[in-house]
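Hi, here's the filled form for the chain we discussed.

Project: internal
Contact: R.S.
Residues: 375
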Amino acid sequence: MKNPDLIVVGSGFFGSTIANLAADLLDLKVLVLEKRNHVGGNAYSEKDPITGIEIHKYGSHIFHTNQKDVWEYIHQFTEINNYRHKVKSIHAGQNYDFPINLSTLSKFFSSNYNPQSAKDLFDEFKNIFPNPQNFEEKAISMIGLELYEAFIKNYTYKQWQVDPKKLPSSIISRIPTRTNFNSDYFEDKYQGIPIHGYTEWITKMLSHENITLELGVDFLKIRDKLPDNSFIVYTGPIDKYFNYQFGHLGWRTIDFELNRLNVSDFQGVAVINYPDLEVNYTRIHEFKHLNPSTEIDQTLIMYEYSRVADRDDEPYYPINTEDDRRKLSQYRELASLERRVLFGGRLGSYKYLDMHMAIASARTMFLNQIRPMYV
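And the returned structure, exactly as it came back:
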């Protein structure tokens, strides 16, 4: 594509949504540049050639949202099963429901909690830190010190390698507490897994005749060769775009170890957390549970190890320390001066975005910033 109207950098959910809307609703010629050799960003999935099990190459991805407009939008491209995500946490050799519910409370404290006694307990915890200032204080105000130390503190350290006191409280706010036996990880109305995988879903989003997709292309290495009059939506790391002028933003990355086992079921659930420091991985994924119709006497499991991202690693989670937020403010000021570039997505905004949040954010950018330029 010699003269695209719009260049989208990245083919994750944010970039793919922008490209699809611009091509379909505005009839723009869109060039999508993807650094990796596949679409979909960290949601990329593929079929294992031996078992036929759909592998989420970068960890289990479960689509969930309360936004009806997002749910209806995605059904143009994919069919979703009725999977409800349930997670277990193994602490001191015992497995517990997670997030914490009546079953977790009763088993952990060797008591018989009911909805009212659980509510009373959680109300007591709120008094420990009435105005929590960081991750640790917020977590303790939600579940108390004992549960925090059992299920959250060490898991958080393994995940972030940062003192929980230095992390923002917003991270723990995403995890609910329950006064019933509901063991669903998410509370959203709409949930599920794409039956034919995330890759097919995003491929359909990008299959519009006005979209040209180029894989294995690093935008930052060729940007000087691109047309000056093309508008750009950049979804890569914002600090990298500005050549780390104010230093590196802190990111966590993940290493994965995939194993094929000759058993029909290894752990009985898609994800189990391992919060104890004696275990060096954070989670084990078993993908066949994400699509319960998969029936084969083999299974695939994936161990997940978290560490600080180096410059050449794929960034996953923004650490978001006070120093990171200071640098981010400086980068955002530079970004606001870019005449023909918008920054978005998890990497471009330095925000943790679930898939539905990335889609909703992209739709908002399209409606408020991109469409007005062409209508």
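Let me know if anything looks off before we file it.
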